[in-house]
Design a protein that fits this description.
The structure is a homododecamer of 156-residue chains. With 156 residues, chain A is mainly α. Chain A has a single domain (10-87, 97-154), classed as Ferritin, CATH 1.20.1260. Helices cover 74% and strands 3% of the residues of chain A. Chain A contains five helices and two strands. Chain A has helices spanning 10-40, 46-73, 82-88, 101-125, 131-154; strands at 41-42, 99-100. The first copy, chain A, has a two-stranded parallel sheet with strand order 1-2. The longest helix of chain A has 31 residues, at 10-40. Chain A is elongated, with a radius of gyration of 16 Å. Chain I binds chain L through residues 2, 28-29, 32-33, 35-36, 39-40, 42, 64-65, 68-69, 71-72, 77-87, 89, 93-94, 96-98, and chain L through 2, 28-29, 32-33, 35-36, 39-40, 42, 64-65, 68-69, 71-72, 77-87, 89, 93-94, 96-98. Chains A, B, C, D, E, F, G, H, I, J, K, L: Residues 18-153 form the Ferritin/DPS domain.
Chain lengths: 156, 156, 156, 156, 156, 156, 156, 156, 156, 156, 156, 156
């Protein structure tokens, strides 16, 4: 059977593996939610938000790939299947149908807030276990918080 | 309430809307399945298949965006949320865990085959209802069948 | 005298020639109208609409070139002169002067709607006469309807 | 009502506004005439002239945008609509139908000559009124005269 | 033995396979003929035609690859070998030796005319059998007819 | 001691040197003010204005470099230090803290208006003294007035 | 009133906010000082130092934007106005006038040394308060220290 | 009749002309053979060989153009027509139908070996007759031998 | 004598200097080993591994430059000479001669494993001494571990 | 005989023609002198001056083309032949042989000074005769004076 | 005094130095002659020849730089001054004034022929003395002969 | 066992193999020496030499790859391991520690001189044995001698 020799002791690996799998699911879902809003937003600010959401999608896709491959690097099989995402994402339910621009901004503020809050926990939990993974979480958090600021500012 | 004045009569719109929504779900799921295999494939052909799968992901992401925006263009709200994908995708269940390279090829042959078969039905069903949408389905089918050939050839 | 040997029988050629000439005029006028609004729009959404209109201009210029050269390809001299555009365009009169952003969106919804409606007729009328020209009209319709959706969504 | 505070006194503004509006119409028409010939030229020199005309189109489109936005910058609503172009352009009537290559060169020599002559007047009339607009007219004249030389040289 | 499961029933497959193989041979030969003339053309219009022919070569190479891979996609082995091209091309014999520029244009008008005429038949014959392949033939025909126009116009 | 042999007589040099030093300070301050608003703007139009302000920053940085190097070219040491900018800029005080989007637009209209007005004076004062420097001021004025128009139009 | 919900507790936020504001001022001033020397340097090494200084300007501008937007992200209004820079920068006074090349190198060694020393304190003070901001300070320190080495090496 | 004044004496010209014509035919055929295998290869190494073959095609197309134009440069009409290639190529017959990956590698080893062996003879025969043509053959041989090594290494 | 004023106290500097010098040697050797295998690998997987090894070379060269310049930045002279690499590298002896593809993968798994293990120690040892250098080691470790995963996966 | 209809009256044309012809010769010679020094410079500052001189060559070549084509545009045949340059250039004799770096800088200061002084006269003499040509001379003067500053600064 | 230690014995160096200096003068003059014709050509083929001549200019400039730097590399001071070019070029006198297109082609055939003939002698004379310089002459000859063919073909 | 069928007879192969292996070692060592100086150089000319050395590194890396792959192409296993480079390089010992700029130039003059001298011998020894390899050595010599000139000129 295929086994990568992990550079981490078992307890640390377990901690880091959970953090990476959680981040993977959150980021894949964020990419799907942002696309959903990208397609369904309406209202005077349509174009601006439509474009802004693709920036979020780019960020989410880039980092989901990074965390999944980091998991594989540590010998942990990543799981980014639709069912897994649907069942374990940290982002709450997204309503179907058209979304007024103001509501779209609010939905992103909420979704990003949820993902950031879990990502900050991962920064903390992996600090001792694996500084390499922690550094990845720090970079992701920086990017997500920047998006978070922009959507909050639009509510200002 | 927001209403796009659809250029199609109601019956045609219903046919095309179902085709577009079905294609959206299939393509989003294809992008997730291809990424899942991209991360979990192992074996001597790892690198080649790993790269090949990102070509599939690119195709699936590009076309999922096209069909979702085509639905919106016709006044139909597209639904590409994780739950919807998990529940209505035409691709069968994907097993978790590491995937031997030979099995990875087989999984893609099966997944692409399932999506293509449904896409060809959509080409047929939308021919009269909306030649613009049909043309999109034809283009998607061409791209998917080309990927299908390549994975089949690797089994040759 | 210069005569291209047309690949089409005379009756088909007449049908296709009229469709192409009509499309040429509509598209040239669309590019002029979109530029007119690009320069004259005012209001809080100025910058977003100003940029969006250049996307419409790009689409209109690209496709006007395609249909004019398609006409020449079939041995039919295309006519995109200002007088011809002014006299035969399918887009109604555009008022002079500054245009409030909300009105700008409405003007584009109307102008695009008019052009799309005629373009869809061309898709139908050329299906048997010349599938090559029809395919061009289908592609143009897809692009115009996408722009149409975006301006409609901004009214949502 | 929307009013840009013009940096120019009224008399100067009137002079400059007329110059800019006239240039806008001439340049839009030049772009349409050059495209018309681009599509309809025939003869052994077809390809060379066909390409050369797109260089003229690029120049005319670029500068028509500049002068229209300069007008708006000075608080003057620019008018580049097809009807306005058809009625007020400084370029004489362009015949419909195929154009022999030699005639195509002659048509451009004439059309460019007409526009240049008016543009040189604008350089003079705006020198005191607005050196910023004058500098734009000088740059346009330089580009048009260079095109003019090339077509004349082809008649040499 | 290697077998692609074709998405088409046998009778349709036979029709489409013949069309694709025929197109492959015609397009490979067109690329060779265009290069032959590219190297052997002489006369005052040498440079213009020399460059124009490389545009034809690009078109022919691009589409020959597309139709060959489309055949493979449908489970049909494509044959683009020199012997096959020499024996089954739809383009008549090309004389050896230097070619006067005027004759070069005439040769391309003839060669393109022959290929287009067969390509239009393929558009018709595959319409029901495989709309995906038909769409490819339509796109090829559009490109070839555009080249055809340009060479004809040079004879105008 | 280092002395560039200036191409201008002393009186002219003094005039031009003052104009260049004044322009340098105004443009450096404009770049700082535009960045300040870029970071502090809030409200529904946040994203559009945030991006628009970076266009102003690019313009201001580009031209501040040009005028500073023009001064050095004439043998005059340019001074763009923070203290000098703080003390001699033509732009009035900018308040600290968050800025509502509507106010952000107003602040730029005011700041650009102040810089433009002084720049137009420089166009006048340097006309005889140094047409090379004057030409630089004319180009800067054109760019600043174009930004000015856009922010004014957003207030329309 | 506009309030971003900061992800940090108040005490941490205060620490981080001070560090970010201090870094912003230092970096804006560094960009102004480096430009000042870029314009005023003279001597045989003019060209090399002139170019090297623009690398410093690029670094300083890039990171000043990052820290300002990081402050906004945490709900803290950044202040990069000329007056604030002039009054609170960690870089000592820069003399006006031409700068001999050897002195220019010395000035940059001193200026970079001052900024680096404060930046290292920020790395320490924010380690517990906000690892995301700390990571930004670490990256900035790495870049500044590399520039510092290069100028020091030129004094070697 | 058209005659290029060849820089070579007649005997040398005959030698070089034969070498160039032979190389042209070999290289055109190599491009066709490599494409044939590119389309028909099957087996686990499909993707890698499929891509590798397009590198061979690029090399063969590039150099066939060079030798054909070198012949024309020396006043010798090059002949790269399908019939000529089919009758005089130095590459043996290529079987029709699907090709197992291992066999594909073997076919390229053989085809490249045949072309290289003839090309080395041309390097020798043209050394005195025309060092310019010899230098071209040396460069071609270097490229072909590098491809040869790679396919041989895959058989290792 | 040339002395960079190091930002670190002597004890910390000694720790960091040793870590950087060790990393420099390991990375230079990794680039040489990867090139050695790049040139000598044989077997069916030749092309894939040949390309993959150049990715490793790029990583090793990039990071060797970074750590050498970081050492210089801290006032420590880096030593990357062949003799030093030969004598102090952490990678074991590499056998001369051709390398079967399977063995090539194994050699890289071993070499990367050795370097990673030492690099992780450097992450630990420099955490307190110099977080800037530590951050560099963390980034290097992330990249090397990703390469390690891929070669291990190929053994799966 | 070929005659461009000049847009200028005869007296003005004579003035402008002389200015353009003089500028052409000066700029061609400047490009040759700068290349001569580029090849022959020696000394510790070799590399910096060698690169700097190619910037001068680029400027001189670009503007020599502009003024020559401007002359042709006005119906005046430009003369940039070696003999004409050798006999009428405004740049004094350049000594043959190696050039010490310090002397190289001095030679450029002198050469640029000579060209600039004549170019400023042309700015004056063409102001009334042809503002389009004057604007070209102003732009050239700006570029040359910038180069002049840089070489002078290196003597500082 | 500055002396490069030449890798060649004195007699060989003398031979090679003369060849390089001769080539430098021929190539600089070719670039001037080609530009002269580029500006003065008239007639129906103006545009094609105008563009073709800039290709010659690019070739001549590129290779003149190569041979001048090769001379410097061998310790020989290159001389590309206008006077030297005017006095020692292998290209005969070029008449002033407008040049009919047919004559322009003839002038280039003659000029290229003269340079090529001397360049071929240099290929011969340097074969033993310095194969590195010879290889440069071979490459230059190849490029010039290709241009020569094209202009000759236009006379065909 | 893996054997490439070499195109050369055994005696020639031995000669060429030794030349290629020797060149490989020299070039790898040159890249390491140049990097060593790139990192350790100090003094006023630091930046210029630092950049110049990376040009040498690029040349050395590019050509070391070429000669190693040429050896493999001829069936000879290349050896570029650190131990082999340390033991057999033609470049003398490089001292550790900081290097004054003047000394850095001297070191490169010496190192390049040593490698060039051996490379010229290889040009001679392989002329008959393998003109393809000889042509590679000629090209390498040309590049190295150009670098050699530049460093020598800096000592002038």
């Amino acid at each position: 059977m295929y086994v990568v020799k992990s550079p981490l002791p078992d307890a640390d690996l377990k901690t880091v593996a959970e953090a990476l799998q959680g981040a993977l699911v959150d980021l894949v879902d964020l990419s799907l939610v942002a696309k959903q809003v990208h397609w369904n937003v309406i209202g005077p600010r349509f174009r601006s938000i439509h474009l802004q959401l693709d920036d979020v999608v780019d960020t989410a896709r880039l980092h989901s790939d990074t965390v999944a491959e980091r998991a594989a690097t540590l010998g942990v099989s990543p799981d980014g299947r639709a069912v897994t995402v649907a069942n374990t994402s940290g982002i709450g339910e997204t309503a179907a149908g058209w979304i007024q621009d103001k509501d779209a901004v609010g939905m992103l503020v909420t979704a990003l807030g949820a993902v950031i809050s879990r990502m900050r926990e991962r920064v903390g939990s992996t600090a001792d276990a694996d500084p390499v993974s922690q550094d990845i979480f720090i970079g992701i958090t920086a990017d997500l918080e920047k998006h978070h600021w922009m959507f909050q500012a639009e509510n200002g």
